[in-house]
Amino acid sequence: MQFRINPSLFIFSLFLLLLTSCSQPQPFIFKGLKSIKIEKASFGKNVFKAEFTYENPNSFSLALNKLDADIFINDEKFTHYHLDTVFNIPANAAFDLPAIMEVDLTSLLKNSIDLIFNKPMKISVKGTSTLSKGMFTKTIPIEFETTQKLNLASLFSGRN
After folding, report:
1. pLDDT (tens digit, 9 = 90+) per residue, 18-77?
2. Which domains, and CATH codes, for the chain?
């Protein structure tokens, strides 16, 4: 008895196996703002340096290729965040992403009362991230929200 393999059936089976073994990456979980400080203060554009903490819930590592997001404080647009440096994200682990953001003085003034009195502020991040695993690349939406206190002294010293 001879056993022949049908090439089209073999290719279809291989494709089906590949399709089911590659799971869809889950979005990162936003854990909060780790640190923020003012790098440059002026009456025009102010430069902030921050670190955001996230968690990768996936059981596989990923490469973050690009991130484009708007950051809102108390539902008002604060700034835009763009990152195009490749970061290797470990599987099932927390990680920090740096952010350098330019902020107009008017955006700071809108939230100055809450900063002075150290009130909790609603921080939202909305945008997209481009992730890759091997040769596969996928753009997934980002939407996080947290409430956090940002006191004025920590902005100048870099502590939260």
Report:
1. 544 456 777 888 887 788 788 888 787 888 888 888 899 988 899 999 999 998 888 888
2. 25-157 (2.60.40.1820)
